[in-house]
């Protein structure tokens, strides 16, 4: 099975400007995703999709391929990443004549993942049951117990009111947080559908300490603390 890793890293992050090449534990953030992907023997190529010359330069220095620069219209705040995946797959099809057997998306924003997490995602995909494999971790909040929404009159209510009273979070239905540790997708599925949950989705569980997604300076500081412990 030919597997290609895709790392999507645009230059215009507003939550934490420059985060994809911000230094974390001595190396640019994106370099962690590249190194983790390269550690998985089943991954034949590591490709970075970016609109930024600076990110492209750093990615190449870290050993990734940057065979194209993403067009500006696919690097806006509102651009669905699904379209970025499609763009990369279309390029690979044009360049190689065929799609890879699988694409594993490895976001730069989850630097605490382990290569074994990516290995387990590929193991799950190779079972042949899924169009998409996602990663999840234990949810810190439950829509049945302690997640609320507000109303126009100023009152609040649970996001999903349970059928009977729930006194402890442990008694609520089990839910999970999706993580950005990794996604494995069938290329043909991405090219013909419009989102992950239009197909058959299975999952791999990742412990919370490896599932942090960096979206803010606080997230980055937490990642620095956790990296310093290893």
Notable characteristics:
two-stranded antiparallel ribbon, seven-stranded mixed β-sheet, alpha/beta, about 230 residues, 2 domains, 6 helices, about 30% helix, Spore Coat Polysaccharide Biosynthesis Protein SpsA, Chain A
Structure, described:
This protein is of the alpha/beta class and 230 residues long. It has 2 domains: 3-136 and 176-228, Alpha-Beta Complex (Spore Coat Polysaccharide Biosynthesis Protein SpsA, Chain A); 140-174, no CATH class. Helices cover 28% and strands 20% of the residues. The chain has helices at 29-38, 53-61, 81-96, 115-125, 187-192, 217-228; strands at residues 3-8, 23-24, 27-28, 43-49, 102-105, 132-138, 148-150, 156-158, 176-178, 183-185, 201-205. The strands form 3 sheets. Strands 1, 4, 5, 6, 9, 10 and 11 form a 7-stranded mixed β-sheet that branches. It has a two-stranded antiparallel ribbon with strand order 2-3. A two-stranded antiparallel sheet has the order 7-8. Strand 7 and strand 8 form a beta hairpin. It is globular and about 55 Å long. It starts with a strand and ends with a helix.
């Amino acid at each position: 099975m030919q597997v290609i890793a895709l790392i999507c890293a645009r230059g215009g992050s507003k939550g934490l400007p420059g985060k994809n090449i911000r230094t974390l534990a001595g190396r640019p953030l994106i370099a962690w995703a590249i190194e983790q992907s390269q550690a998985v023997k089943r991954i034949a190529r590591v490709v970075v999709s970016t609109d930024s010359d600076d990110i492209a330069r750093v990615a190449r220095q870290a050993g990734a391929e940057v065979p194209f620069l993403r067009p500006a219209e696919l690097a806006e705040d509102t651009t669905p990443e699904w379209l970025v995946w499609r763009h990369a797959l279309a390029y690979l099809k044009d360049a190689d004549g065929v799609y890879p057997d699988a694409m594993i998306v490895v976001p730069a924003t989850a630097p605490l993942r382990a290569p074994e997490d990516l290995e387990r995602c590929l193991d799950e995909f190779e079972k042949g049951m899924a169009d998409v494999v996602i990663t999840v971790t234990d949810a810190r909040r439950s829509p049945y117990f302690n997640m609320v929404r507000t109303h126009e009159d100023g009152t609040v209510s649970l996001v999903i009111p349970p059928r009977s009273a729930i006194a402890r979070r442990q008694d609520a239905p089990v839910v999970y947080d999706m993580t950005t540790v990794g996604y494995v997708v069938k290329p043909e599925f991405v090219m013909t559908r419009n989102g992950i949950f239009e197909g058959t989705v299975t999952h791999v569980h990742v412990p919370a300490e490896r599932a942090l997604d960096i979206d803010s300076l606080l997230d980055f500081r937490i990642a620095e603390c956790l990296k310093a412990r290893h």
